[in-house]
Amino acid sequence: MVSIFLILYFFFPKHVAADIVVHDFREKTIKLKRPAERVVCLIESALTGIYMLRKQEKLVGIPTNVYDEGYYYSETFKYYSLLDERIRLRKIPAVGNWESVNLEKIISIKPDLVIIWANQTDVIETLERIGIPVYAVFITKIEDIFKEISDFGVMLGAKSQAEKLINFVKREITDIEKIALKIRSPKKLFYSWAQLNFLQTSCKGSIVDEIILKIGAKNICGDIEGESKVLTMEKLILHNPDVIVMWHSKFLKPEDIRKNKQYRTITAVRRNSIYQFDETFIFDLWTLKFLYAMKFMAKAAYPEIYTFELEEEKRKIINFLYGKKLIN
After folding, report:
1. Is 11's pLDDT higher than 50?
2. Do the beta carbons of residue 88 and residue 78 sit within 8 Å?
3. Domains with residue ranges and CATH for the chain
């Protein structure tokens, strides 16, 4: 619980003349008198967008999983340490994530903007009640990623940089789609989230589905709606994917799938066409880095059509997005 003292002491005025106006993913109007200068970000994928905008100096609070990667993340601290000396030295307070939030700590550092997942309604309600502007995020499609970075550009005074980033990614996608026009017989692709259950996937309407379609392949569960679905073993075998792409997992690897006798009749398994994202930071599908994941999946599905070199593409994309040589 937040003490009454803190609520009163750090009270923010609720009605201000606004020069900056955006609408978040709740369609809530966010009004700021000037670009935000003290930003608390509770979402790692949103945090990375702030670094792409070159506005990291505004950060006064970050997600806990930057320092404590836990089960779901890998290499996160390494990359942020290269991007920001304050993170390397653990000087920026970690104030929460999608699971829990330290409200007193957030209020004590007096942010003029908090970025948070839209489903964290109790936290949002408390922050807004005391007058702290909150931008709530809910990413379900590629266009949402563009909206988020565009809105951040407006709120942080980096509109031109946001446009530059978005235009770069859109040009690259257009190039991929032009190549995909050459494909006459789409391969069937199964995407596995892999961390908790190999059969967990993303279906019609998801970012994963958008990526699969843009590279000229067919999502084996593209006939059903859903961001997160668990297929039955029978359905996976029946659809018989030509290619399998797995999200990063610390415990489940392609060789585990190859050795599993239940999957041995699947074409992707028989042909050893199983690929895996080897870390989470570079392949983050909820950031502009989805572009590299898209190229990785394109190369996995159609190596004879997408002739680019993945390591070269990784360097080009990541170093451009962050404006720094993160990948040698």
Report:
1. no
2. no
3. 4-157 (3.40.50.1980), 182-322 (3.40.50.1980)
